[in-house]
Amino acid sequence: MSLPARTVLVTGSAKRLGREIALALAQAGWQIAVHYRGSQDEAMQTVADCEQLGVGAAPFDADLADEAAVRELLPRVIAHFGQVDAVVNSAALFEHDSAASFGYAALEKHLRANTAAPIVLAQALHTHVQERAGDGVVVNLLDQKLWNQNPDFLSYTLSKAALEAANTMLALALALAPDVRVVGVAPGLTLTSDYLTPEKFEALHKLSPLGRSSTPADVAGAVKFALDNSAITGTTLLVDGGQHLQRFTRDFSMM
User: What is the pLDDT of residue 182?
Assistant: First the structure.
């Protein structure tokens, strides 16, 4: 007998790394809830591409800085698919500030989207699996810079550091039958951005002991591994070619 398809909510899966994770999990047979905030056209394309791989997929919009919207998100996904087995928190706010420009508003904005939303979604998944007597998994996308800190993007880094700490606390709090495992995946420099020219990205991508940092496929593979391995919780997989072992005095985008 074939097992019923598992369903995963991937936040920020309309574009970039979230999209690559969604497609890799669709290829592995997961049904995909494609979360987006403003990128509706890109979200619909991700849905269509997942469906081309033979799995169910649907788009769900929500502003992760809005607590009410976040609390409604998982119930909407459950209403559509019937159940949810996992959440991958890939979406993140990434705006520059420094010790000189830091302010309460910048930190609060990053904490709401990057820390509070993943915790609320983990809480909601735990409630859901208790109701259906199953297990669940939360995977939080972190950043190798937590193990190789620099002074750039202060509020972003603090929000990700708080989420890494939450990994441990949630793994302990939610490991009650039925279990929800909580795993971090910390990529290195994976995709270019508006801050980097293609040439600069290629040069920085090579700065690691292995001679290359992570690719989208590397990160998606680590997420899939975390979802599938039932003995992993409360820890983080660093997928960065060893970049966290080298000392960088600035963020890649500032180098």
Answer: 98
In the block, tokens 């890109």 appear at: 42
Average pLDDT over residues 75-98: 97
For the chain, the domain total comes to: 1
Determine phi and psi for 202, rounding to 5 degrees: -60, -40
Q: What one-letter code names the amino acid at 168?
A: T
Is residue 2 included in any domain, yes or no? no
51: domain CATH number is 3.40.50.720
CA atoms within 13 A on the CB side of 92: 24
CA distance 183 to 41: 30
23 exposure class (CB count in 10 Å sphere: 0-12, 13-18, 19+)? buried
Contacts of 125 (CB under 8 A, 6+ apart): 74, 84, 86, 87, 136, 138, 180
Single-letter code of the amino acid located at 203: A
Spatial separation of the C-alpha atoms in residues 148 and 64, rounded to whole Å: 27
pLDDT per position as a tens digit, 172-214:
999 977 789 999 999 999 998 888 889 999 999 999 999 999 9
